[in-house]
């Protein structure tokens, strides 16, 4: 009787101890990369980043919930950074509406934890190719979601402040997606694949 009662409790546990440890470790790595500046590559109007990589690794190796938690920590750190040392693009967002700035920084980063997990789960490829494809595709989705959120929430006032048509803002976002997103995606695939394969060999893999 006692065993029968314990089983539902175990199934309803939000996260296992292993998942909590992985989430904490990858969150710490994300914050370290952010605080040291190693996770950001400053460009003209925004910062390219590799801070999404721990989120992708967490999703593939420990599951959706771990990826979402690490992504949330990534987003919160990015939001705090916009309050302290924003790029030119995010400076406008934080000055225009700090709530919109928080949404732009945090929500896309949580979603990439879900996207990475679902892509990895449903792709039917050889394992290294599966991991690399997940990393590349998730990174591109991250760029599109982040810039798309900016365009949707503050694109119109940004265009008015710059004295340009709204379509120009869309073109700017598309250009950033190509210039930043593609290199970020390639770097992500190159970094994530060997790390995840090593963790899989060590027995760490999402169900």
From TrEMBL:
Domain of life: Bacteria
Residues that span the membrane, as ranges: 20-45, 66-84, 96-120, 132-158, 170-199
One Pfam family, short name: ECF_trnsprt
Keywords carried by this UniProt record: Membrane, Transmembrane, Transmembrane helix
Protein name: ECF transporter S component
Taxonomic source organism: Megasphaera hominis
Lineage: Bacteria, Bacillati, Bacillota, Negativicutes, Veillonellales
């Amino acid at each position: 009787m006692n065993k029968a009662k314990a089983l539902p409790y175990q199934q309803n546990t939000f996260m296992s101890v292993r998942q909590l440890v992985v989430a904490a470790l990858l969150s710490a790595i994300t914050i370290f990369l952010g605080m040291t500046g190693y996770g950001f590559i400053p460009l003209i109007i925004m910062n390219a980043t590799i801070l999404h990589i721990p989120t992708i690794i967490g999703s593939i190796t420990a599951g959706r919930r771990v990826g979402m938690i690490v992504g949330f920590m990534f987003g919160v750190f990015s939001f705090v950074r916009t309050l302290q040392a924003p790029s030119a693009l995010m400076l406008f967002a934080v000055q225009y509406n700090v709530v919109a700035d928080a949404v732009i920084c945090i929500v896309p980063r949580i979603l990439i934890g879900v996207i990475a997990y679902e892509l990895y789960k449903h792709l039917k490829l050889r394992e290294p190719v599966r991991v690399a494809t997940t990393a590349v595709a998730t990174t591109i989705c991250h760029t599109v979601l982040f810039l798309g959120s900016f365009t949707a929430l503050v694109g119109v006032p940004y265009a008015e402040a710059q004295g340009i048509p709204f379509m120009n803002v869309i073109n700017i976002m598309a250009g950033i997606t190509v210039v930043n997103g593609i290199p970020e995606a390639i770097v992500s695939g190159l970094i994530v694949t060997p790390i995840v394969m090593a963790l899989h060999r060590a027995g760490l893999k999402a169900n």
